[in-house]
Amino acid sequence: MEVAEAVEKYEVFWAMKTCEDRMRELLPEHGVTIFVHAIKHDILRLIDVTALSLARSPFLPVMRALPSHCAIQWVEYQDAYQQIFEKAKQSILLAGGYSSAFVHWE
């Protein structure tokens, strides 16, 4: 992350895409840290990808790491994602004739 911070700070444009690509590879292990970095530097593509990967993550670790000006937006995003997930889950259950008692969703 130190290299990515320096790249953004000193605007090393030729290295920005490489850092972004590398951070995408590290999302499963370092999603919250990458999300905060992307927000700090306004890297919209990385914000989008990271937010989606964190949407069903535990709420508090993400909230604790976010800048305070992003808290309400994160709550709204996570709530909207959860509503969409629930509707999709119900559609799948109804279309397949499954009972939710027999299906485990993570």
Short précis:
The chain has 106 residues and is mostly helical. The protein is 75% helix and 0% strand.
The radius of gyration computed from the alpha-carbon positions, rounded to a whole number of angstroms, is 17 Å
- Poorly predicted runs are none
Overall mean pLDDT stands at 91
Sketch the major β-sheet: none
Helix content: over 70%
Give the amount of beta strand, in percent: under 5%
Taking the alpha carbons of the first and last residues, their distance comes to 29 Å
The gross shape turns out to be elongated
* Topology pattern, helix = H, strand = E: HHHHHH
Please report the number of helical segments: 6
Classify the oligomer.
Answer: single chain
Number of strands: 0
